[in-house]
Amino acid sequence: MNHGFVKVASAIPSVRVADPQYNVEQIESLVIQAEGKGIEIICLPELSLTGYSCGDLFGQQLLLDEAEMALIHLMNNTRSLNIISIVGLPVAYRGSLLNCAAVVQRGKILGLVPKTFLPNYREFYEKRWFQSGADVPEGTVLICGQQVTVSTNMLFSTPSCTFGVEICEDLWAPVPPSSMLAVQGADIIFNLSADNDLVGKYTYLQNLLAQQSARCICGYVYSSCGFGESTQDVVFSSKGLIYENGVLIAEAKRHQFEAQMLETEIDVERIRAERRRNTTFAACQAESSMVNGQWTMVDTERVPARPFSLTRVIDAHPFVPSGARLDERCQEIFDIQTEGLAKRIQHTGSETVVVGISGGLDSTLALLVCVGAFDRLGKNRRGIVGITMPGFGTTDRTYTNAVNLMKLLGITIREISIKEACIQHFNDIGHDMQKHDTTYENGQARERTQILMDAANQMNGFVVGTGDLSELALGWATYNGDHMSMYGVNASVPKTLVRHLVYWVAERTKDESTKQTLLDIVDTPISPELIPADGQGNITQKTEDLVGPYELHDFFLYYMLRWGFRPAKIYLLARQAFGQKYNDATIRKWLKTFCRRFFSQQFKRSCMPDGPKVGSCSLSPRGDWRMPSDASSDAWLKECDELG
The CATH number of the domain where 72 resides is what? Predict the structure, then answer.
């Protein structure tokens, strides 16, 4: 089972200008290699059978005949292969010469797609030799002994995807053919190109491909010619790029003298899920069907399923970008949180905000956001009231960090112990204090929330919530306890990103004491601290021991919420992403836990407080996620049980 993945390749063969026999041998070698790797579709460069830089030799009948013979050679020698090959050649058609892509499989030419936009400026003179496919009527041509359809409005259907083809300059047009191909149903676009090198042009090309694949919500496979093309006036540098919905997933090395084959898997299921969710895409489909005439859908050969293995890199932390992007992302998220809170403060006319400070990650981030909002509004930080509420499980480490951080940030500090109030409450309801069960834990959480709410009333303020997206997904919050606030600034920030945000602030803090306190908070085990510490004063109740590693749960959350993937596919991706860090049994265990808790805890999300959306995933019942609290999880749990 390929779980919606399609194996594709962008190949760049060695080439000799005007030597189709040599060129087809190089192409054939790459096609055979690709077949052996289970690749379903391989794309070669523009005019790959002749070479792009033939110039006026395109007017020679001998070259055209040799190109046709080379295509026959390729068809005959790959007749027993299941792979679909897309190669470029000049084709004589109704008194014109077209720059075409031939789609070939099992000895048959499935279709010829002519280039629409012919560059005829600066170093390009394509209109000297070719005519645009838009200027000739759709029809058939006899080539290689077969009657083959020639059309710019052509799509190809395989059991695993629908794809379309455009050629080089087509991509650079204001309205590329790929836009129409995508709205007509193409999941993947293949581009045969001959793109010469200029300073800065490669970066521009990358941006163009990223934007087009994102705009079309598609996979985009780009193959451009390289070493062997004429360097009389320009140089071609072997560009191979594969994008998926705006994200680069594979890239060839440039300026190579040897042939290259860039291969990866495109997730068509992911593309289709995003298109279904995007109502603008559907609207474009409806409009396009009214104005763009007839489209030809070509069915490819139905071939036996290939053995499948996933080779592409899967990011283990999809919410946390790497490298320089992390700094940019953290700044952007922090600004969104800060602005959201500032607006709420301004709108309510509140004199204060109240936040419970535990010395943990979530309350620390919420406090930092409060400080940011007050600073932006020009308000005195003393209007931020941090309340630390020691309980039965509070450790010296978290208490010290909580108090020190509040002092260092210059906010108002209040300390209110919950022990006596909880003892009285447990006596009132007849609960045994030695029984450390859900009642024991939730009673403390609700007492803390009552203190925060009433203190906010005292000071004409409101309570800033600290709970994060991961806790909401798992329901790891006490209903009407830490689950409740007037504004939850962390509501759409997953736990793995909370840690990075606090670390990001720490690294940019000039005061060394504040920095060290924040770094120690980052290193503290995640815990609600509702169970007494051990004899040495260490935390005994570690959240990840109880519900599983947050990095796994955030991974599960991303692929279930953002893309709607089923457990079997999430399991496949998790195994690829986490490698040897977690064994298969561990991943299966926590995936089932996630699915079970995600369904059973929806009632908490149905009445969650307001809070700013910061990323592509949110569980707000007013925004991204509407789910009945009594929905059945049976199908998800059954599939988890069947994983092996």
Answer: 3.60.110.10
Per-residue CA distances from 206 to 171, 192, 293, 329 (Å): 12, 15, 31, 21
pLDDT of residue 644: 75
pTM score, whole prediction? 0.90
Do residues 496 and 387 make contact, with C-beta atoms less than 8 angstroms apart?
A: no
- Determine what percent of the chain is predicted with pLDDT higher than 90: 85
Q: From CA 196, how far away is CA 205, in angstroms rounded?
A: 11
Structure tokens at 527: 């815990």
Convert 33-57 to b/e letters by CB count within 10 Å (16 or more is b).
Answer: bbbeebbbbbbbbbbbbbbbbbeeb
Judge whether 90 and 50 are in contact, CB under 8 Å. Answer: yes
Tokens 């763009």, residue? 292
Decide if 493 contacts 363 (C-beta within 8 A). no
Where in the sequence is the domain holding 60, given as residue range(s)? 5-299
What is the per-residue pLDDT across 429-461, written as a single tens digit (0 to 9) for each?
999 999 999 999 999 999 999 999 999 999 999
Active site members: 46, 115, 168
What is the tally of structural domains in the chain?
A: 2
Average pLDDT on 100-118 reads: 97
308 domain-assigned? no
* Residue 530 pLDDT: 59
- In the sheet with 139-143, reading across from the earlier edge strand, the strands are 139-143, 146-150, 108-114, 96-105, 84-93, 41-43, 5-12, 260-267
Provide the b/e sequence for 175-203 (b: ≥16 CB within 10 Å): ebbbbbbbbbbbbbbbbbbbbbbeeeeee
Strand 108-114 to 139-143 pairing: unpaired
Q: Which residue, 266, 299, 332, sits at the end of a domain?
A: 299
Residue that finishes a domain, picked among 284, 299, 314? 299
345 shares a domain with 232: no
Q: Please give the single-letter amino acid code of residue 457.
A: N
- Does residue 444 share a domain with residue 333? yes
Residue 291 pLDDT class (50, 70, 90 cuts): low
Side-chain half-sphere of 26: how many Cα atoms within 13 Å?
A: 25
Which of these, 38, 30, 29, lies nearest to 8 by C-alpha position? 38
Q: In terms of domains, do 127 and 59 share one?
A: yes
Contact predicate 482/445, CB 8 Å: yes
Residues 334 and 295 in one domain: no
Alpha carbon 611 to chain centroid, angstroms: 23
